[in-house]
Amino acid sequence: MIDHHAAHPFDQALRLARSTDGAWEGATHPAYANMVGPFGGITAALMLHAVLGDPARLGDPLALTVNFAGPIADGPFRIEASAVRTNRSTQHWSISLSQNGAVATTASAVFAIRRETWSATEATMPAAPAFDTLNRYPGSLIAAWTRHYEMRFARGPMRIEADAPPLDDSVSELWLRDDPPRPLDFAALTALCDVFFPRLMVRRPGRVPAGTVSLSTYFHTDAAGLADQGTGPLFGRAQASHFGLGYHDQSAQLWGAGGRLLATSHQIVYFKG
Amino acid sequence: MIDHHAAHPFDQALRLARSTDGAWEGATHPAYANMVGPFGGITAALMLHAVLGDPARLGDPLALTVNFAGPIADGPFRIEASAVRTNRSTQHWSISLSQNGAVATTASAVFAIRRETWSATEATMPAAPAFDTLNRYPGSLIAAWTRHYEMRFARGPMRIEADAPPLDDSVSELWLRDDPPRPLDFAALTALCDVFFPRLMVRRPGRVPAGTVSLSTYFHTDAAGLADQGTGPLFGRAQASHFGLGYHDQSAQLWGAGGRLLATSHQIVYFKG
Fold first, then answer.
1. A147 within some domain
2. N or C: which end of chain A has fewer CB within 10 A?
3. What domain range includes position A76?
4. Other beta carbons within 10 Å of A28
């Protein structure tokens, strides 16, 4: 018997049971609730987790795109994941999450067998104050998921107060990890890539409706490389390149111990006003 | 009767005929051939073009992800595009290209009705020499598509010679447009986002096998905004953030007249060695 109370909330939220038709059944978890529906990062992690749990899966995640097509209601959902093409060292997956027969989220994932090659990093980690010297962001009472991440902002904090002054750019730089700390794996890294609030809220504080529409993440390490990270904090940076006509993009980089780039992630975000 | 010889090669390559089952039938075009199979940008443009031609399509393209799952042979192909979810102002599409019943390329597209909002650009166009002052890249004899784009490099040219010295970074900056010039539209912009050679070839010149695995593009303007661009050259910048374990990412920005950011595009690229 599994002791559900002992499991990390993230592992509870990832719990999927395979039904006889091959689909995965799960349910939204209150620890990762957003203002409306679940935190996008937990949904992205679930899409990847369904593939990671499939015995037909080849290699490690290389790329994941998640499209948030419609709202997800609190409660049960089904995830269907199928390998649309398997090559010698890569595998392409198509994934969808539905509730009551309606598709709410679609995704594609590329898995690959990674092999040692020449390596170099051009996106180097910015200089930042040490983790211990920064205050922890207390989290938001209206978005439960923010209290399950430890975020220590070096620059560009979340400022939801409508009277905070606008900034000249949308850059956030912060230390971040799961709370309680949890050994890093691909599902956790996927969710961590989406902890960056919509850049609009950094640049122009205020309570404006905003939400991710499409999210693409590239993984720059393999399972062994992630295991090296353990439970230590990551450092993240996010910035938008353009706001306009109701949408803005944002790009994020996540570095692990020793300034090693673990993932880069890009998204397009709806906003009102 | 359509005069096929009068059409721009890009429009010839985009030609799709709708079959009675709703799928689109097309064929690879020699003008956009790559060393093996077609140029990825023309394939990406075709995936979007199939949706643009569908009477059920809502609004303008906002995001497009294309996964190059397997090789495309010279010859005919079929594209199937279906709207998986239509909301009030957004629509999510799932698209696949197949040959002889085998899926070669998958894609997802988000379309949206764009409305005026607050706007700002953080990714500003780099300073660059004027278009007329730079020499045109002659194109490669072994990749026909390179001769159907006018590329004038300000920085980081393609150097396929194996004895060219390595560089400290993978940045390319260039003026670029269709050749012959063609009024900009979403299909052309999609293809232009993929004209940046694999960053490996800029940083470490040499003939190393490399190819895009997954490509995501975000559009920062609407159809009217693209029409303003006409046939003028765009300015593009591309850079990798990390190379390792057989893959590297790269991010590109494309600016139009007046330094207006038209699209940002990200991809993950396989490489050997």
1. yes
2. N
3. 21-113+129-271
4. 21
* Cα-Cα-Cα-Cα dihedral sign, residues B177, B179, B183, B188: negative
> Within 13 A of A86's CA, how many CA atoms are on the CB side?
6
Nearest to B29 by CA among B120, B142, B145: B145
Mark B57-71 as b/e (b = at least 16 C-beta within 10 Å).
Answer: bbebbbbbbbbbbbe
What residues of chain B lie within 8 A of the CB of A70, using their CB? 85, 87
> Which amino acid, residue B187?
A
Q: Which of A115, A121, A241 sits opposite B253 (nearest CB)?
A: A241
Which CATH number does the domain housing residue B208 bear?
Answer: 2.40.160.210
Say what the ipTM of the complex is: 0.97
Q: For residue A138, what are the contacts with CB-CB under 8 A and spacing of at least 6?
A: none
Residue found under tokens 């992690």: A45
Q: Which residues of B touch A220 (CB under 8 A)?
A: 242, 244-245, 247, 249
Q: From first to last of the 273 residues of chain A, give the pLDDT tens digit.
A: 455 567 999 999 999 999 999 999 999 999 999 999 999 999 999 999 999 999 999 999 999 999 999 999 999 999 999 999 999 999 999 999 999 999 999 999 999 999 999 999 999 999 999 999 999 999 988 899 999 999 999 999 988 766 788 899 999 999 999 999 999 999 999 999 999 999 999 999 887 899 999 999 999 999 999 999 999 999 999 999 999 999 999 999 999 999 999 999 999 999 997
Judge whether A44 lies within some domain. yes
Q: Chain B: give the shortest CA distance to residue A122, in Å.
A: 5
Q: Count how many domains chain A has.
A: 1
| Within-domain flag for A178 | yes
Of B108, B240, B270, Cβ closest to residue A65: B108
**Is residue B25 in a domain?**
yes
Q: Do B86 and B57 contact (CB within 8 A), yes or no? A: no
